[in-house]
């Protein structure tokens, strides 16, 4: 069943059309990859879905209901969570407390701090941050902070998870570990995932379907193989073929 | 009550608007480049006014002559504060993280100290400066010379700064810093120098406004507060960090206030200003000319 | 509760007990000082409820104090105290909701600017209303005794302290602190930021409204310039800064220090009082931003050899 559907979504900032008549749909349980050069509109897409911006045109249907224009916290409570491209940990709070915030609010909100602590411990185990649980979040390495972003988002019990360049800045070994973790989390939590990535290998391996954005337009959509072979996509990235 | 459509009222509105634009420009420079809310801005206007007053009363120096020195003195004070306070703050990494709110409390404390030091030194009694009292008449418009001088000086200074920001390389650097801090760092601009200069310039403008105000009415150690509040409303109206927006908004608010007070009474001045403030926040929080990127 | 915490609780119970005994032991002057101390505790705890947690700094909290005072004075001898005082608090809370809504919907420095000038604005409005009613200062006949007011204030201080204590350890408090750390991230994680900010603002106004009423009765005289005095707002901020705005004991420390400072300076150098207070604020922001209680609890954590989160700095 279609979990998320964007219909003719558009938004402009000043004179610039950041997204132009973009439509796409995501089935429950899928992993869909989003790719495109910088400025293509990928993060804007996430901003719109998560509620940080309101589209000028079009609708965003989540589970059949139009969520365009709803506030981010309301959207989160409906089951959509996102990570940020530039991580935003709660620096003075411990790693554990960061995740507890997700557990206390969000879709499956815990009532008590005790229950949230337990949920947080479980999730920290899953992402491999259990040993750093009592450190201040600001003390983690970048890779750790990225995992914290995911853990926090997971704690809100989403059905749809938006991952925004979680692999940027990771070493190849870390990339593989992240990729495997994402696959495992999806299975264990019955997630649907939309993932923006520049790390092509990971994107192609994770995504069953890839959507390509370019200057705010959706220029291609298909399996990883068809996208890799597409002349249109190649031209968008590399420019027109040499004469 | 002056006739609503008289040129007299228009003149008064322009003078007020020009003064508001000037104070707001100073505030915007500091806020735009460093995201610091200088709640002591009004106190520097007050100090500029007192400097002009004492120069005139003790040394017979006319305010117009004293103005450049007051500006330099205020700018130097701003620089000293920048070096002293913010070197201290920025060196502590934990504090640097929270700089925006910590600076608020610092300036808050500073404003209280300045007000009360002035009150202790000068007493709280309001004083006035009899200078340029004559009136120039053109048709049925009577312009007090001191108000005319204020309008001319405020307008030319703000115009000069707008041109500076547009056409001078350093001015463009200031604009760049306001728009995007990271990008400015990346393109190799000496951000520290730009910040320092904007800070000093901001304080200098406050002193200038104070010097001008000293000619216009009574001054007292506690006069700074309404100027600061108005300056804040102006920069919000024009869009935070938007320098030209602030100037237009200053003019607009000056007009609104003058005509509004003419229609009702001087008691309603604060209510008018706050009414505008709240209205803007409800309808268009990014200000009349601000960009859409403000948080919902 | 671990060892150090239990003995801390014992100290606070002892202190509360001591304050409860004061009316029986002290003369009028020191009872008045005790009343002032309790009022500052109540005010600062309420301020911390909003500004200590979310980092949204209110520079004009005197507006609720004045509003509550005004309402109590207006209904004096028409409504019994046990109705008019809570009503004053509720009115202050409602005012906070109404005025806070436009500014708390959006992020940015707007809240500070609003609160800074709002107390002044309210002062002028009340002066205007009073002038139209033909009143220039009001004298209150038959105000309750100092002792009665003292008991009421003690209750207010206890409630305010308890509120800070409980919120700090609640889901609501966790959400508020997340707002301070990173409001956008908090919102993305489902924290209802607008609702929480508004509620915290209203909650922080309630007790100050009642305190304003009690103090109006104490002086048996209402005058807008006194009621909406910006020095009140300033003092509240200083207390929270020097004591610590992270947890319940902070404002108690701060209020104690302030009252001692006041008693010393009023005798020897009253003009310097505000100047010194301003310098104290600047000094603490620069060197002891977590306040004295924050500093002490950090020392205790280090000596207890337990890894702990960094103590929160002030109040942002």
Key attributes of the depicted protein:
heterotrimer; A: alpha/beta; four-stranded antiparallel β-sheet; C: 316 residues; 1% strand
What does this structure look like?
The complex is a heterotrimer of chains A (243), B (296) and C (316). By secondary structure, chain A is of the alpha/beta class. The relative contact order of chain A is 0.17. Chain A has a 6-stranded mixed sheet with strand order 6-7-8-3-9-10, sandwiched between helices. Chain A has a 4-stranded antiparallel sheet with strand order 2-1-4-5, covered by helices on one side. In chain A, a hairpin with a 2-residue loop joins strand 4 (57-62) and strand 5. In chain A, helix 3 crosses helix 4 and helix 4 (113-127) crosses helix 5 (142-155). Helix content of chain A is 39%, strand content 26%. With 296 residues, chain B is mostly helical. In chain B, 75% of the residues lie in helices and 3% in strands. In chain B, 50% of the residues are buried. By secondary structure, chain C is mostly helical. Chain C is globular, with a radius of gyration of 19 Å.
How many β-strands of chain B, per DSSP? Answer: 2
Report the major sheet of chain A: 6 strands, mixed
Contiguous uncertain segments of 5+ residues of chain B: 292-296
Order of the strands making up the biggest sheet of chain A: 6-7-8-3-9-10
Please, how many helices of chain A? 9
Radius of gyration of chain B: 19 Å
The ordered H/E elements of chain B are HHHHHEEHHHHHHH
Q: Into which percent range does the helicity of residues of chain A fall?
A: 25-40%
Rg of chain A, rounded, reads 18 Å
| Greatest contact between two chains | B-C, 44 and 45 residues
Question: Distance between the terminal alpha carbons of chain B, to the nearest Å?
Answer: 43 Å
Summing up helix and strand content along with how strands pair, one would put the structural category of chain A as alpha/beta
**Shape designation of chain A:** globular
Q: Strand percentage of chain A, roughly?
A: 25-35%
Sheet with most strands: strand arrangement of chain B: 1-2
Cα separation of the termini of chain A: 46 Å
Q: What's the pLDDT, averaged over the residues of chain B?
A: 83
The major beta sheet of chain B can be summarized as: 2 strands, antiparallel
Low-confidence stretches of chain A: none
